UniProtKB/TrEMBL annotation:
GO terms for molecular function: RNA binding; RNA methyltransferase activity. Gene3D superfamilies: 3.40.1280.10. Keywords: Methyltransferase, Transferase. It comes from Tagetes erecta. InterPro entries: Alpha/beta_knot_MTases, rRNA_Methyltransferase, SpoU_MeTrfase, tRNA_m1G_MTases_N. This is tRNA/rRNA methyltransferase SpoU type domain-containing protein. One of its GO terms (biological process) is methylation. Residues 17-153 form the tRNA/rRNA methyltransferase SpoU type domain.
Length: 229
């Protein structure tokens, strides 16, 4: 995110975050990053494995901060220290329509798995839930990136984020920031690297989020370029 947009959002007093956990199709992270930059998100928070495919980001990963945690509990502690609500995007018995803008402060949005939605563990960390009303009969739910875009747009409108300058029929894109190693992630210890590798092995078969795809291009994996060593 460029300094102008980030400073403007901070001046409004509200920030938004997206928490990414247990998303099965890792290329969705790239498109989520694109939507996040469009709607003024402060940080994308990866929980569990932190490698992902940048497909669909159209370069937007250079304009948003990433942060990584090994567990939802750690992510929740960080967000609560930021005085954030954690809002689950899910259809539940007590969900509120996102069109009613039930937000009261800075908010982190937790998106569910493409097939199964939010797990019981994920629901436990949420303060409340919103859903997106549908008016047609042809589908039971929306793609996770589409759902995220709609919810983030509603939050941006509620929070009063200033609209980005337009040039012709597109919005002005900031110059790509100069990459600084480790700008979005704290320096790792040997123990933390070992722990991550162990977690990666243990969860590959079971959870399948951000799974390695046979024949994938390693240049799309932003593990090192986004977080640094």
């Amino acid at each position: 995110m460029d300094d102008q947009n980030q400073n403007q959002n901070q001046n409004q007093g509200f920030e938004s975050y997206v928490v990414i956990h247990n998303i099965a199709k890792r290329h969705n992270v790239g498109t989520l990053a694109r939507s996040a930059t469009a709607f003024g998100v402060s940080e994308l928070i990866l929980v569990g494995r932190r490698d992902f495919n940048s497909f669909g980001s159209h370069g937007s990963t250079s304009h948003i901060k990433f942060r990584h945690f090994y567990s939802l509990a750690d992510a929740r502690i960080f967000l609560k220290e930021k005085d954030c609500d954690i809002c689950g995007v899910e259809i539940t018995d007590n969900s509120t329509s996102v069109t009613s803008h039930p937000f009261t402060k800075s908010t982190a949005f937790l998106l569910g798995n493409e097939g199964s939605g939010l797990s019981a563990k994920e629901c436990e960390v949420c303060d409340y839930f919103v859903y997106i009303p549908q008016y047609g009969c042809g589908t039971a739910s929306l793609n996770v990136t589409v759902a995220a875009s709609i919810v983030l747009h509603h939050f941006a409108v509620w929070a009063g984020f200033p609209e980005r300058t337009r040039d012709g029929n597109k919005f002005v894109v900031a110059e790509r920031p100069v990459h600084k190693v480790g700008r979005n992630f704290c320096t790792e210890t040997a123990e933390s690297v070992t722990a991550e590798r162990k977690l990666k092995r243990e969860h590959d078969a079971k959870n399948c989020f951000f799974e390695e795809m046979e024949g994938s291009d390693s240049s799309n994996n932003l593990l090192d370029t986004v977080f640094g060593d």
